[in-house]
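Quick start: what a row looks like.
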Amino acid sequence: MNALTLQWHDAGQDKTQNIYEQQLSKNPGTIRIGRDPLRCDIVLSNPTVSGLHVEIFFHNQQQRFYIRNLRSQNPPLIDGQQLVQGEKPLTQGTVIYLGQTKLQVISVSINSIPVTILTPPQAQAAHHPPTPLAYQQPQVQLGHHHHQPKPSAPPQGIYGLECPKCHKVSPAENLQVGCRWCGTSLAAAVSVLVAPGS
């Protein structure tokens, strides 16, 4: 699956978020970023960020991720240039300023055919009921192209999703399901490195 990874510093913490071509969000088809937790999937606390500032989406025909400005009075800076209206493609290394908050695209993964099609469904059947997108998470591409590991012993370099409400870490395949402890949507969850055997 096509994915983009954003990194930023907010409220004294370094944060990283994967944005997928298709994922649950408050506005289907896009991931919105701003200060308002009711309208945004990625919430920033800096007061110079607008309530609803920008959105990131995947353009199927162009096979690229784009950023679109939603606040003409407070335009974002994309690689040093104001994006007053319209949209701009995002690439690895793109620097985005929303007010005084800096976000950076640290990776972009565009795949015409998801590698995980090769993963046999039996690999997860023992621990997780199959869900339509459970086998399309990009985490299995991190050096493991043949078989997905058993969930009880994730290999080094696999990421989990930290629930924005209870802060417990769920497996990445729970992205579409939600937090298994409190039920909160994981669309705005922070990606965290899962230690082997955890």
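That is the whole record. Residues 160 and 197 are 13 Å apart (CA to CA). Residues 114-119, 131-156 have pLDDT under 50 and may be disordered.
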